[in-house]
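User: Here's a chain of 401 residues. Predict its fold as tokens.
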Amino acid sequence: MQYTFASRMGKTPRSFIREILKVTERPEIISFAGGLPSPALFPVERLAETAKAVIMEDGPAALQYATTEGHLPLREWIAERYHSRLGMDVSPDEILITNGSQQSLDLIGKVFIDPGSRVAIERPGYLGAIQAFSLFEPEFLGVPLTEEGPDPAVLHAVLTDENPRIFYGVPNSQNPSGITWSIENRHRIAEEIQRSETILIEDDAYGELRFSGDQMPAMRSFLPDQTVMTGSFSKIIAPGMRMGWICAPHEIMEQIITAKQGTDLHSNILSQRIIARFLADYSIDEHISKITDAYAHQRDCMLAAIKEHFPEGVTCTRPEGGMFLWVTLPDRYSSTELFKRALAENVAILPGVPFYADGGGESTMRLNFSNASEEQIWEGISRLGKVLHQYLLAGTTVTNN
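Assistant: Prediction complete.
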């Protein structure tokens, strides 16, 4: 049988992480490749109690079809959280509950991207966004990241010369680099976007997971009419519940609601009610504090292990929050080759190549510290350090095909 598929499928990469995770499922492998929160920090017992209460008390309503926008008490909580955490006044009507932040990206793509539309994105950028947007056949325009955030001069040129529909970025503990945009950078980026017709897509998946430094203002506070924010409960409650949201101006929200109705009518109402009840019955700040304390310790362990075991010439970021740090090898070395060599020693990394929508990144890699114990971090980085020493000292280089 000869199947005829839509042309977009040939232009959409498979999830690099999901493919690698298949390889790293063996129990003997220490994996820094995924983007997984720590399962030890999932509030399993409290969620079990909450789920039972929701089923027993709200049974029919929790199992029935629901509105596209989502459970109102949950949207009200998100709006109030924006006010208490970021000082933003947001109406629940500006919030739509989605099946995880990945659906948020899909809906944004449906609303804004036509084949050939220009999409600006951080370089390196979140590969989940690259994959979601690729389905709509855009032309990606990379904006290099500095230690302060996106390069304002490059963004100015991109906005002026290319007039992209959207600019996607992760201002807090960026995935994959771990970089948090500085306050100066946020002001400059806002000024550049304000002079354009481009919509900023502000992915705030890691905003609650901050270990050090001051709370940064949301880009939406500078650009209320030009910003679409996305958020997620995956990092602060549990990813398996698949609950995220979009916060957007009313005119944009109307289009997104229409797109969602054509996709799945509404997000899982049972999960929405369980999360809303959980947030009402328990202190989310206490729970987030527990998560951030654990992740800060794991980050510090990984940085200490890297300092002890990695050879000179290999550098890494020091994230102020989130779940990842970014490692750069000397230019002539390949993290894809390193992945193969490390896997032979039962340790997995994520090469940086898929984070570059326009190519490049051969000498970079992302390491996840949130889903490994202190013992696994020290052992895994020790193994990786030995592989790095052997690879770099051998003097051989391999480039990606």
